[in-house]
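hi! just following up on the protien thing from before. the input was this:
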Amino acid sequence: MEKNGKMICMVLCMIVLSNYSVKCGTINDTKTLTSDLLSDYNINVRPIANQSLAVNVSIEAYIKSIQEFDEVQGKFSFIGALLFMWHDVNMMWDPAQYGGVYEISVLYPNVWVPELVLSSPSDDVNSLGQKWNRIRFYYNGIAVWLPIDLIESTCSVNVRNYPFDTQTCTTSFNTLGYLEYEVRLIAALNEFKFDVYQENSIWSIKKSKVSISVVGEGSQLDLILHLNRKPSFVIINMVLPILFLSLLNVLVFLLIPESGERVSYCITVLLAIAVFMTIVSDMLPRSSEPVPVISIKLMIDMIISSFIVFTAILNLNLYHRDESIPIPQWLKSLYIMLSCVSCSKKKIDPHFQEMKQISSKTSTKVKTINVVEYKNEPIESKIGRLVEEHDEDNKITWKKLSIMMDKVALISYTAVSVASFVIFLAITAVSSSEN
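and the predicted 3d structure came back as:
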């Protein structure tokens, strides 16, 4: 690191000198200098006097923009640049002998460069650099190379928390052909520089890292980007429609059975949820580990919707059942248990008054009852008539069972659908924030 710091200081000094010194070199001076430097230059020999030592190459990473991130195929591409700096003993000269020329630029194929090979390619294995690239050399031997390219790499995708997911993509370069003691890579900065970065509409960069490691016997450069998905588009076009479909699904129990549209309505919503499952599966990688939470959420919605279809069909069967068919006692007990809450809140008719206590001689035991005071009507007739009206009003029928079932199903399935959506948001959002 000390050598790296000295190298950077030398480059800065040369930049200052190049800005403030008077360059009076002519074209002939530059031609002569270039010819002298390259006449005996061998690109196959490392540019260091002591060949037992390593060539120290300082690297800075820049990113221009994120070009594409294909989660299905696991491909990640971005436009970036790497700033290389090293010392070349073959490219040193005395500016006074060449008319005050302090720096020159040379084409990429004519000089030695620390060639790096992309070891995590999405398609073909390519090396960094093109034949039209130029390397700038200063009179003291400092070389500066800035190759810019579209880097296409693989990326291991984890969509468990989609659309609130965070992805970590690593692009690796290796010094193939050189051992670690021959060419040593040094990270001048441990993160990307974003001086020219343009924001992406889908992804935002949470943090970045530039690291050097030894793999095998050579050096490896790892460019690591931590990406956060911008979930607004997916929430508006996918997550909210799923919620609305779930809520629309339970409204089938508000349709009157005589409409004849109950079964077709809930099956239509079921098919709509199936279409959303297809859309989501096309947008996500075909991987079982980990399974996206949104896929589990859609499967739960499919199960709920299937139960709603079953409940709607069963309810229609109860509603249109012949009243001559006796109702099982357990259904009557269930109906009474479910209706006890509404019965306890039922208001007393204002036209009724409190009834007198029934005599112990009366076989029917009734504590109190509200009746209308009719003149000249015996108390026994009043009791008999009101008991008959009470029994008629509270008679349990198949239609009443169907109506009660509609109310229970509407409340239950609404609660389950909302709870499923809230749990989905909680799991994905919390897990994403932890990452």
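The chain has a mean pLDDT of 79.
The radius of gyration is 41 Å.
cheers
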